[in-house]
Amino acid sequence: MNPDQIDPKAGERSYYANIGLESQAHTRAKPFSDGRCGRYLADLGAILEMIEPPSRKILDLGCGVGWTSRLLARRGHTVTGVDISPDAIAAARELAAAEQISNVQFVEGDYEVEIAEASYDFVLFYDTLHHAEDERAALQTAFRALKPNGAVLAFEPGYGHSQAEVSRHAVKKFGVHERDMPPQKIVSTGKAVGFQRSLFLPLPHDMMRSLYRRDYFAAPNRRRLILEKLWGYYRALGWLISQKRGGLTILWK
What we know:
Elements lengths: L9 H9 L2 H8 L8 H15 L5 E5 L5 H8 L3 E6 L2 H13 L5 E5 L11 E7 L8 H11 E12 L7 H10 L8 H11 L3 E5 L2 H8 L3 H4 L3 H20 L4 E7 L1
Parallel strand pairs: 1-2, 1-4, 2-3, 4-5
Antiparallel strand pairs: 5-7, 6-7
Helix pairs in contact: 3-9, 6-8, 9-11
């Protein structure tokens, strides 16, 4: 980059360093420190079910401090986590060492730039592709990194994410990218870079919170329990047929 040019990814590079000590501690303790812990565990549980049995070779792009990478590695997979933030990568390495996890490595890098070729079984974007400046370049990186018949797993938000209050706050305060990343965009872009097949599934935590709800415990009688259960099935069906709010998009090389 020309030194006179503004770095368009400066916000992503400095994000972890700029969020403050309290938020850093929260991030380092994920998923259990977060109110969305159930969501995260549901999503990671779905990944483990789909990619079993260990050991698979996984590239985790946009890994942050590496909680997803470490969880997958603890299950027995061989994982490489990549993030553009040097401070996040330093924290990820420290946490992996503290947990004595030897089958995970963390690399500072831009996932829009080629990382490796044809060596991974899976590439994971967990809530990270929508931070890309150029999603086509990011998916091209994933395509080149995968073995033949390897697959991308992209857990991404859908329409409206960029305009959510939390997204606008992050853009204004930290200078990061926050974009809508619906499955249609991922599929069309993936096809353009060479992926052959695709599948869209609702987010696991959306299905889980439709069926496994606290409302059951407040039901005063069996009739109300049945109604609550039927309402859960109806909500789950809505997630199955809707693609507007994002989900899990799988692309096969």
